[in-house]
Amino acid sequence: MPIIVNLDVMMAKRKISLNELSERVDLTLSNLSILKTGKAKAIRFTTLDAICKALDCQPGDILEFVNTEKETTNP
């Protein structure tokens, strides 16, 4: 998947545990863990908003797009 979730990086930068973030954003540990490990298929804007507020960051600090398509050049 070309969207990379860098939640673990931001959590480490802010020195916050999964348990503490879970309490701050009112999200279950299992759902937050799924997001943290990059296994989530979607995220609600309200959840992203709460995470960004709790970590004092921007959505782009958490989500990253990586283009996995190979570019082809025509001679």
TrEMBL record:
<dbReference type="InterPro" id="IPR001387">
    <property type="entry name" value="Cro/C1-type_HTH"/>
</dbReference>
<dbReference type="InterPro" id="IPR010982">
    <property type="entry name" value="Lambda_DNA-bd_dom_sf"/>
</dbReference>
<dbReference type="Pfam" id="PF13443">
    <property type="entry name" value="HTH_26"/>
</dbReference>
<protein>
    <submittedName>
        <fullName>Putative transcriptional regulator</fullName>
    </submittedName>
</protein>
<dbReference type="GO" id="GO:0003677">
    <property type="term" value="F:DNA binding"/>
</dbReference>
<feature type="domain" description="HTH cro/C1-type">
    <location>
        <begin position="7"/>
        <end position="62"/>
    </location>
</feature>
